[in-house]
Amino acid sequence: MINLLGKRTRCLLIHPKFSPYSFWNFVDVSKIVGAKYLAAPLGLMTVAALLPQEWEIKLIDTNVEPLLDEHFEWADLVFTGGMLPQQIGILDIITLSHQRNKPVVVGGPDPTSQPNLYQSADYLVLGEGEITIPMLLNDLEKGCKSGEHVSSDLADMTKAVVPRFDLIKFNNYLHLNIQFTRGCPFNCEFCDVIELYGRKPRSKTPEQIIKELQSLYDLDYRGHVDIVDDNFIGNKKNVKTILQVIKGWSEINNYPFYYGIETSINLADDDELLQMMKDVDFRLVFIGIETPEDDVLEKANKKINMNRSIIEATRKISSYGIIVNAGFIIGFDNEGDQTAQKMIDCIQASGICVAMFGLMYALPNTQLTKRLKLEGRLFNEFSIFTDNKTQIDQSSSGLNFATLRPRIDILRDFVDVLEYIYKPEHYYERIIRTCLNLKIDYKHKHSFIKILKNLRSFIRITNQVGFNRVTGKLYWKMLFCCFLKNPTALEWGISLSAMFIHFYKHSKFIIKLTNQQINFIKKNGEDIYNQRRLTMTNSQIIN
Ligand code: B12
Ligand code: SF4
After folding, report:
1. Which of 42, 45, 372, 513 is the most buried (most CB within 10 A)?
2. Is there a contact between 332 and 370 (Cβ–Cβ < 8 Å)?
3. pTM (2 d.p.)
């Protein structure tokens, strides 16, 4: 009999695999720089810090290492969880644990959004772990063999713990993640962040943030730190205080890190904030641009993006040495025939290279999903994944509802835009545009070893893209252009060229999947497609 709260409780945390076909799975790029996956599992590292620290804890991220029988044999208790695209993986881990008679605890964003799918877990621990993990521990102490621990309360971030960064091998990842705040003040109809984490940004204190940075520093991590806040500038006053404190700490520690963030586009309105970010070495931002059409934004309640020039905003941010990556969506209700062209113009003219262009996906529990359900347009089982080869993310599984505009038109537009933006000539044109806009004065300096590693990556990238029929000429042209006009941006030019290896492959894969759907609708009609989607997945229909 296992004593689950005994001193020697062995707890195995398993991070389920993401599909290698995902836009975000930079497998090829990771290989070039000697890593295995984009980012570390911050959720499970945080869970680990919330468990009794006298427990023995092991974290297996199946994106970077195999999950073995011996891991299960070692464990008394298994913890797993994650987001929607990890659904199949989470369910598999429940089965594997049960086959080995190990109790399993499940939590994280997808189980919180759709607990009904995970009833086979022994313990469901939903919502924010800071609130519900103590409830689980309490029940374990009482000897409960199963249970559901739910709370819609939001955690007090000033009491948040430092994640257990020591449980992972840093070299496996392109960058590390940390989180300062949760929540976003805006109210976009399609957004699940505000349903899960609320509209009032909650922040850790500057002292907590420094403690986290110091913890990474003490573990000898150097380089790229991604701040995965829902909206880093959700509370601008607060963020300025945080930046000031980070600046002081960075100066003392010789700028060990540079940063990436997720933010809303109104960052471009605040020069003071941009300068403060530059002073601390922020290099990347991810912005949900979604669509360049104001009337579409208005209907989706994404008003913060309206009445502004995306091109100007991107240029402004780049002028502070910060690269803009962005998300774009097609499939909003009130789009028209001009949508695709406007999207292409916006992406091309702004020079955004990392353009995550996907189909609208109604995520569980959003205002959009509720409206579509009321209108009788939401497909049954709209967010159940059963096939991880074709159900990957919003690009492969989007439009999980009956559309107002003919579905076939949206899908054709989707293909047209993807073909255009990831055509080598157009992508490389954007690299040049981005690199020429960047005014770089970076504070973090690479170590000698990192410079050698970068040199090795440069040789690998040049071998792959510089002597390649599709990208060869474009690559050399871009290198010469950057070298002559803005040599400080050369490193970015090379990195963005490396990313194209992935984007090119990924866009071809998504285009092929989408064309199968288009052909089915052409042959059978949209009504038949919609009827079948009520009970079948997209892949079951088209295959
Ligand atoms: C960083 C991030 C990413 C990174 C992933 C980093 C990585 N490790 O691979 C990238 C950019 C790749 C990404 C991509 C996507 N993401 Co994302 N992402 C995030 C973001 C912004 C932060 C995640 C994070 O680290 N949070 C901090 C940690 C501490 O929070 P947490 O993981 O939720 O963990 C807490 C609890 O959930 C709980 N918990 C977590 N796991 C477990 C397990 C157990 C057993 C227990 C008890 C508790 C527990 O305890 C923790 C402490 O409270 C979240 C939003 C958010 N605020 O979380 C979205 C989020 C997770 N992503 C989401 C989505 C939809 C996606 C995409 C599908 C589309 C998109 N938005 O781009 C893609 C698909 C990815 C793929 N590879 O296929 C949704 C998920 C919704 C859902 N129902 O599952 C979220 C919630 C919001 C959003 N719309 O973006 N994402
Ligand atoms: S700005 Fe982004 S995070 Fe905030 S509500 Fe809108 S989509 Fe969600």
Report:
1. 45
2. no
3. 0.96
